[in-house]
Amino acid sequence: MRGPVTIALLLLTAVNAVAQVAAPEDQTPLREALNIGISSTEIAIVPDFAGTDVTLFGAIENVDPALLAKGGYDIVVALEGPRDRITMRRKERVAGIWINRHSVVFEAMPESYSMASTRDIDKIARSSELVTHSVGLPRARIVPSSFSGRAEDVALYRDAFLKLKEDSRLYQTNPGGVKFVSSSLFAATIHIPADIPNGAHTIRAYLFREGRFFDEKTLQMSVVKTGVEEAITAAAFDQPLLYGMFSVLLAVLTGWTASLMFRRD
Questions:
Q1: pTM for the complete prediction?
Q2: Potential cystine with 60: which of 92, 184, 201, 242 (Cβ 3.0-4.6 Å)?
Q3: pLDDT over 60 (residue 107)
């Protein structure tokens, strides 16, 4: 993996050097911008998949050397999984029976979210700036579309949602995970958990200058199942009736075989 990443960084260095040629004094300095690339645009899920890392690399064009020297630039990168409708339910005891009494629906939430940044995101910009440009996953952005219960309890569902995602390592952050490797070139390692959902994923890179949002770039990455897992998934979605019947038959045969093997004479 080091070979392609090194070559890409060298190419970005050349592009960045050309972009930084001094402009005539009578022209307005060019605005900073991002260029990014990724080590792999497709992750194949095999039966023994235990997670992996993806390397994102990039460069800041038209960088201000003085501002760069004093750490005035910050980079945030995030890998967002497919978005889905999430329902959180809360059980309560009614007449001695535990039932789902209230629920909250969060619309279009990413099933997975991995973020890396040059430093703690709270130190990069104000919360209002992050929310305005949808950078990171601030708690203020997790707003329910429907809710049955007391309004003051929304925070409980929100915290429970985040805890479940963080405990399963589907939501993770890595402050300091983005490093400037030379001059205006940077690289970041994004961890792919073992149970990452398959489908289309989006990689976003954000540039901040002295706490202010400046630029954003996106890349697409796909996670696909291969081999037996791919065949099973396709059967479950394409032929649900046959898949269900086969699953029941397999369970019956497995139980009957086990009873024969372990029965006592």
A1: 0.72
A2: 184
A3: yes
